[in-house]
Specification:
Residues 52-352 form the Aminotransferase class V domain. GO terms for molecular function: lyase activity. Keywords: Lyase, Pyridoxal phosphate. It holds the Pfam family Aminotran_5. This is Selenocysteine lyase/cysteine desulfurase. The protein is α/β, with parallel strands linked by helices and 356 residues long. It has two domains: 2-25 and 271-355, Alpha-Beta Complex (Aspartate Aminotransferase, domain 1), CATH 3.90.1150; 33-268, Aspartate Aminotransferase, domain 2 (3-Layer(aba) Sandwich). Helix content is 40%, strand content 14%. Strands 2-8-7-6-5-3-4 form a seven-stranded mixed β-sheet, with helices on both faces. The protein has a three-stranded antiparallel β-sheet with strand order 9-12-11, with helices on one face. A two-stranded parallel sheet has the order 1-10. Strand 5 (141-145), helix 7 and strand 6 form a beta-alpha-beta unit. The radius of gyration is 21 Å and the shape is globular. It starts with 14 loop residues before the first strand and ends with a helix.
Length: 356
């Protein structure tokens, strides 16, 4: 996979272990953006005359990529933007189950509203904790991250599927920002009702773009209040009063939405087989190496499934040492967060281990 570093020039000068913080700009994405703005420069509004057709193609490509009907794909500027529209679409006083210390962009918007909120603990028994909380609290909505941003703990997707089968009326909304782009995801055959994501991380699509996917059954339960002229513009929205139209009240930027399309096309070109093989290789080697050095929390070590995000034990001095040696990572929680994507190599891991 070393040849893929050429696609991401940052990796020529730095060891980038920070996709969990920010993804990279690829040569493919740069080419699209330069061509897009050149067309805008020389064509002006003539280029924008095709905006609706362009965003329709983006919507359809996102739907195909995640196996979701195009008419159920909303294009948004970020997860937070779409999630707040989603929350406003829920009935007042809804009973919502969250995870303790989940990503602030999930918990804070829920806690800012007048919902009846309960929590499940994030530990080695995460799935059991959620199940017990559902049995006890009987929530109407479950809002969770598929991957925890601090620890890298990953929810078992088969558990969500079985949970939905056992509690079909439970509305499951998931944030896929730290997951989408790592492995193939079949939305229609998942247990998730609503999946949202910002795509500047693992899809390397740049800032200002994201999506929300919906199952058909959700349309009768959500009553979004947002609306604007763009709510009826383009294929799949022309009939008016559509769910995705309420999530897209304003103009969509073709530069940003097109960046998502270009990023998806790059993933398709590389192939998920190669991507997941490389990530799984690095994840296994990193997990074993970190565990041997006593750098991981017991929660991570004792779970059967984990993401390629790790929070290793380390202080400010180690963090500064890594930065001085051109390793890009983040301080999160009580440690140092490192994350491995498909453009990373075993050499990257070895460099990190030597410095530690």
């Amino acid at each position: 996979m070393k040849n893929l570093k050429k696609e991401f020039p940052v990796t020529a000068n730095y060891t980038h272990l920070n996709t969990a913080g920010t993804g990279l700009l690829s040569e493919t994405l740069l080419d699209f953006r330069q061509n897009h703005d050149l067309d805008y420069l020389v064509m002006g509004s003539l280029m924008k005359d095709n905006q609706d057709k362009f965003t329709t193609k983006v919507r359809e490509e996102v739907g195909k990529f995640f196996n979701c009907k195009a008419q159920n794909v909303a294009l948004v500027t970020s997860f937070s933007t779409g999630f707040n529209v989603f929350l406003e679409a829920l009935p007042a006083k809804s009973k919502v189950l969250l995870l303790q210390e989940d990503y602030p962009s999930i918990n804070w918007p829920v806690e800012a509203r007048d919902f009846d909120i309960s929590y499940a603990k994030i530990d080695v028994n995460l799935e059991d904790n959620i199940l017990k909380a559902v049995e006890k609290e009987k929530p109407e909505v479950l809002c969770i991250s598929l991957v925890q941003y601090i620890s890298g703990v990953q929810i078992n997707l088969e558990f969500l599927k079985s949970l939905k089968a056992e509690y079909p009326d439970l509305l499951i909304c998931a944030d896929g920002t730290q997951y989408c782009g790592v492995a193939p995801f079949d939305f229609e055959n998942s247990g998730i009702d609503v999946l949202g994501a910002s795509t500047y991380k693992w899809l390397n699509a740049g800032y200002g773009n994201g999506f929300f996917l919906f199952k058909d059954a959700v349309k009768d339960r959500l009553k979004p209040k947002a609306v604007g002229f763009a709510s009826i513009r383009g294929k799949y929205k022309e009939a008016g009063d559509t769910l995705i139209g309420k999530f897209e009240p304003g103009h969509l930027d073709t530069l940003n939405s097109g960046s998502l399309q270009a990023a998806i096309q790059l993933v398709n070109k590389i192939g998920y087989s190669a991507i997941t093989t490389q990530i799984e290789l690095l994840k296994e080697k990193a997990l074993n190496a970190f565990a041997e050095r006593n750098l991981l929390d017991d929660v991570v070590i004792n779970r059967k499934q984990h993401s390629s995000i790790f929070n290793i034990k380390g202080d400010q001095q180690l963090f500064e040492k890594l930065k001085q040696n051109d390793i890009i990572c983040s301080q999160r929680g009580d440690g140092i967060r490192v994350s491995f994507h498909y453009f990373n190599t075993e050499d990257d891991l070895e460099k990190l281990l030597k410095l530690i």
